[in-house]
Amino acid sequence: MPSVIVVSGRPGVGKTTVSRLVAAAFDPSVHLQADDLMASIVSGWIDPNLPEAEQQNEAIGGVLAVSAMSFARAGYTTIVDGFVFPEGVEGFAAACASRGLSCHYVVLTADLDTCWERARRRGEGRWPLEFSPFAAVHGRFDDLDLDGRHMVEALGSPEDTRDAVLSAFRAGRLIVTGQQERGQR
Q1: Higher-confidence residue: 88 or 55?
Q2: With contact defined as beta carbons under 8 Å apart, do 88 and 61 qualify?
Q3: What is the pTM of this model?
Q4: Which domains can be identified in the chain, with CATH numbers?
Q5: Better-predicted residue by pLDDT, 51 or 30
Q6: Cα separation of 17 and 159, whole Å?
Q7: 180 burial class (0-12, 13-18, 19+ CB within 10 angstroms)?
Q8: How far apart are CA 109 and CA 142, in angstroms?
Q9: Contact (Cβ atoms closer than 8 angstroms) between residue 154 and residue 109
């Protein structure tokens, strides 16, 4: 069955690096980044961390989901990386299931200091790197009531994290059924 693997997690945790490595483990494969779609907005961009960005974020999520499902239906193992929270994955999993696709979800975890240091080493990139909004998004992941089987610690090397994600994927730990999978830590 064609698969979509959603890689989420805190800013600076290594989502993009690990996603690229996970995608390289499959042939054929695709790696889609939410940040790439966000950068497509030419006029009217709103910081995605602000409450007034909800409509923008939903539009980006919709485009990402349609793109991922299109690639998966064409036979590509599709890796999606971005800030994807459980409520967004549930609807995505249901849409995948209705198209005969499997949806898998992993949240990479690491402490704030580790993530901040990684982000600082990486540099600013597309958006300014400011600690306060960075820490706020990081904190949103503290409040998740997520089934522990969807969590992978990302404190080691990107290759170690890739191996842990692939192991969890192959063991069937990351599958999402389209129903809430919370509170089973």
Answers
A1: 55
A2: yes
A3: 0.90
A4: 3-176 (3.40.50.300)
A5: 30
A6: 9
A7: middle
A8: 10
A9: yes
